Amino acid sequence: MKRFSVFLLTIFVVLCSCKSQKEHEITNPANKPWDSILATAKGKTVVMNMYQGFKKGNNYMNEYVIPTLQKEYGITLKIVSGQGKEIVNNVMAEKESGSAKGQIDLCWINGETFYQLMQIEGLYGPYAEKLPNAKYIDFTDPIIKYDFQTEVKGYETPWSKSSFIVITDTARVKKIPVTMQDFESYWKQNPGKFTLAQDFMGLTLLKSWLVEIAGGIKELEGPLDEAKYKKYSMQLWDFVNRNKKYFWKNGETFPASNVTISQMFGTGEVNFTFAFGNSDIDEKVEEGLYPKSAKGFILQAGSTYNTNYIGIPFNSANKEAAMVVCNFLISPEAQIKKSDLKMWGAGLVLDYSKLGANDEQKFNDLPKLIYGLPEVEIKQKSIKETEPKYMIRVDEDFRKYVIDAK
């Protein structure tokens, strides 16, 4: 009799579980017909967290995306500043407080931010591959399928691809340093003309040096290896610490943002700055912020090549409207506009072979880079991102062993 009761209880639990799953599938916004999603989205306000350090990126959103969404879908898109840790902390706070309706509906993320949000189940999904315009994206492309070696699994929408480059002024720097040894020699001969930021740009530079110390990206593939990280990172911090006296302000302080470094580069205060995206030089030269002698180059370790994405927080109160915004952002129209140097100059995330003839022609007719590196050179020297924990550890240890070190 006892065994029979246990059997009945097991059947009951399984049936309840199946019912719960079925109810979730029915109520899950991503499973609704697209017409129903569009109808629900109309009249809604979507709040989006976005890094606002790119002038052209801001213009693209304010002058094109926001008015188009309002006109075509009746959606009001509101952009608020926010990135990285700030996004994770806000989502975590709302999760801990049990907030069913979050303040944010979309966030521009990748890497360690995506990893941390997934760890706390802070993102809604899967939904990305169900969007109508997902047909233009190759989700089997490793650069899209994996965000810093973490599988995306439909929890974020690919928005654009970009590569890490270093920028210098050939009128001021005659012999461009590529290796760590090259930089060390340059710093000693030209003190005060170099610094790095505490943001993702500076951390990517540090990771690039970590890759060089390790002998290549293959040594750091897969989950973070504590023994390897300790071995190579100690060499990295020794390299930075023994040379920071040659940095801007004797290495006693580091700018919070690479935006500041780019401004200092433009005025000649420092001789190097950094960018994710090959169009940055053309953009700044056109605006008169960089000299025409500005030139991009790739470090010895290679050019970190990744994708950035749009995520929907787990408690977004406007998931349908958020999905409509995501779908619009990956439409051929919006992506081609975003790739235009006059608008943003971001890397196309769509699979070129999936575009129609008309869209192909529009993309091919876009203005070409004048000062940026040839795309073929970047791809030949591109390397994939390390696992997210490397970024988290480098961030923590940069502060521990360099910034706060006595």
Structural class: alpha/beta
Shape estimate: globular
Number of helices: 16
- State the low-pLDDT regions, or none: 1-26
Strand content: 5-15%
CATH C-level name of the largest domain: Alpha Beta
**How many individual β-strands?**
10
CATH fold-type name of the largest domain? D-Maltodextrin-Binding Protein, domain 2
For this structure, what is the CATH homologous superfamily of the largest domain?
A: Periplasmic binding protein-like II
Order of helices and strands: HHEHEHEHHEEEHHHHEHEEHHHHEH
In terms of topology, how is this protein built?
Elements: H1 2-27, H2 34-41, E1 45-50, H3 55-73, E2 76-81, H4 84-97, E3 106-109, H5 111-119, H6 142-145, E4 146-147, E5 150-151, E6 157-169, H7 180-189, H8 200-214, H9 226-243, H10 258-267, E7 272-276, H11 280-286, E8 294-297, E9 303-311, H12 319-329, H13 332-339, H14 357-364, H15 375-380, E10 382-383, H16 388-403
Parallel strand pairs: 1-2, 1-3, 9-10
Antiparallel strand pairs: 3-9, 4-5, 6-7, 6-8, 6-9
What can you see in these coordinates?
The protein has helices spanning 2-27, 34-41, 55-73, 84-97, 111-119, 142-145, 180-189, 200-214, 226-243, 258-267, 280-286, 319-329, 332-339, 357-364, 375-380, 388-403; strands at 45-50, 76-81, 106-109, 146-147, 150-151, 157-169, 272-276, 294-297, 303-311, 382-383. The protein has 406 residues and is α/β, with parallel strands linked by helices. It folds into two domains: 32-161 and 306-369, 3-Layer(aba) Sandwich (D-Maltodextrin-Binding Protein, domain 2); 163-305 and 378-403, Periplasmic binding protein-like II (D-Maltodextrin-Binding Protein, domain 2, 3-Layer(aba) Sandwich). Strands 1, 2, 3, 6, 7, 8, 9 and 10 form an eight-stranded mixed sheet that branches. The N and C termini lie far apart (72 Å). The model is unreliable at 1-26 (pLDDT under 50).
